[in-house]
Structure formats: structure tokens, C-alpha cells
């Protein structure tokens, strides 16, 4: 019988940017953290993180990852691409990034973060502003999903909405019992595309090569979460 693997998540929501504040990123992070806890995830949560706080959260979380963990990293906030690399922005980025040379020292490189988590498992991406995000190279056993297509921008939600469009549908799908991980994220993408009338199309790439089903919310002995050793699933 397959054993249940530990499920751990790092969830970060940044919105209090001085120049381009967002509306729903902290709600998105809080609500996803609550949903993940209901399906058995151990969650580390960060809200409105400075660069120092964000880097420390990522480093400490990476240190705790164990072999065969199923790991989820979720970031809601501003992100941008520069020289074919994706960067996730802390809330103090507007003050610190005043020239190109500041970028790598005052933002978080998404590719490097993904590689830090390469001994475990999963990532959901920024509702980005600016130039959007670039396609990413995924280590083996990784699933990456952007809230929108590379180079495009994602909706943060309207004035009456508690959550951004992508997270709204992620919250609905991620708790569905006995749903295979690929179906969860393809369903999210389909619902976002439908509600936005084709204006927002989530982009997903997967290098998961496991001949077993992976469930985030198994509810019986036949639906075990079974990532292989050193499996990483990153949803963005």
C-alpha cells in the first residue's frame, strides 16, 4: 500500500506596494492557506513581505523540506521578467529597485527559488504587473502554473471581489476530494479562461513523470498522494 507523504506549503501574498498597490493578494494568500490546512497541508504564511522577510521565509522553508515531501509554493503579488528570468517582488521593491543593478539584490528570482525546492514538491504564480512573466525551465517532478500566459497580466479582482480571478477558481478546485493534480490545474485554467471571456489564459508546464496518480486531497486508501523521491511540484 502506498504511504501518505507529508504535504507542506509556503504561501506569500504581497499587496502594499508604494507605487502599484494590489487589492486582493493578502486575501488570496490567507484564503489559500486556510484551504490547504483543511486538506492536510502544513502551511507557512507570509503577508506584505519585505525582501529580507521574503528571503528568510523561503530559506527557512527550504531547509525544512524532506525527501518525498509534496511541496507547494504560492505567490500572489507583482512579478516581472528581466533578461529571461522571472522575479517576484517584495513590498519594498519600489524603493530599492532604482536601476537594473538592484534587481537581483532586491527581488526574488523565481527560477532559483524553484531549484531550492527541488528536493520536494509544487508552485502557483504571481498576478503580475509590468511586463508579465517569462516561461520557466522546470526541474524533474515539477508542475508550474502561471495565473496568465507568459508576457500577459492577470486580473487582481474587481472592487467587490475578495480574491483575484485565478485564486477564486484555485480555491474551489484544490479542495475537491480525489482529484488528480493535473485535473485540478487544468480545471482552474479552463474556468479562468471562461470567466474572463478569453482575456486571461493560465499557462501550465509540467515535468512530473510518475506512473501513479497524485492527489492533494485523498479521502480513501486508494487515493494516496504518492510523489516519487525528490519530487517537486510547483504551481505558479
Automatic annotation (TrEMBL):
GO molecular function: cysteine-type endopeptidase activity
Residue ranges of domain Caspase family p20 in the record: 5-81
Domain of life according to the entry: Eukaryota
Example GO BP: proteolysis
Gene3D superfamilies, per database record: 3.40.50.1460
A Pfam family it matches: Peptidase_C14
InterPro entries cross-referenced by the UniProt entry: Caspase-like_dom_sf, Caspase-related_regulators, Pept_C14_caspase, Pept_C14_p20
Database matches in PANTHER family: MUCOSA ASSOCIATED LYMPHOID TISSUE LYMPHOMA TRANSLOCATION PROTEIN 1/PARACASPASE, MUCOSA-ASSOCIATED LYMPHOID TISSUE LYMPHOMA TRANSLOCATION PROTEIN 1
Protein name stated in the entry: Caspase family p20 domain-containing protein
Amino acid at each position: 500500500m502506498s504511504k501518505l507523504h507529508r504535504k507542506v506549503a509556503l504561501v506569500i501574498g504581497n499587496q502594499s506596494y508604494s507605487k502599484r498597490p494590489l487589492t486582493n493578494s493578502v486575501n488570496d494568500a490567507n484564503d489559500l492557506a486556510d484551504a490547504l490546512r483543511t486538506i492536510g497541508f502544513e502551511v507557512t504564511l507570509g503577508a506584505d513581505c519585505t525582501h529580507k522577510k521574503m528571503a528568510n521565509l523561503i530559506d527557512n522553508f527550504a531547509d525544512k523540506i524532506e525527501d518525498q515531501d509534496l511541496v507547494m509554493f504560492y505567490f500572489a503579488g507583482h512579478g516581472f521578467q528581466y533578461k529571461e528570468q522571472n522575479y517576484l517582488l517584495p513590498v519594498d521593491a519600489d524603493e530599492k529597485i532604482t536601476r537594473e543593478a538592484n534587481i537581483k539584490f532586491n527581488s526574488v528570482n523565481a527560477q532559483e527559488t524553484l531549484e531550492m525546492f527541488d528536493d520536494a514538491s509544487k508552485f502557483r504564480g504571481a498576478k503580475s504587473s509590468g511586463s508579465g512573466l517569462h516561461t520557466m525551465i522546470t526541474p524533474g517532478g515539477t508542475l508550474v502554473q502561471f495565473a496568465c500566459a507568459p508576457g500577459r497580466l492577470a486580473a487582481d479582482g474587481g472592487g467587490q471581489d475578495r480574491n483575484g480571478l485565478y485564486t477564486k477558481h484555485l480555491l474551489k478546485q484544490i479542495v475537491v476530494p480525489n482529484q488528480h493534480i493535473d485535473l485540478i490545474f487544468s480545471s482552474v485554467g479552463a474556468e479562468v479562461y471562461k470567466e474572463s471571456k478569453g482575456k486571461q489564459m493560465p499557462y501550465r508546464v509540467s515535468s512530473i513523470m510518475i506512473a501513479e496518480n497524485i492527489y492533494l486531497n485523498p479521502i480513501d486508501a486508494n487515493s494516496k498522494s504518492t510523489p516519487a523521491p525528490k519530487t517537486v511540484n510547483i504551481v505558479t
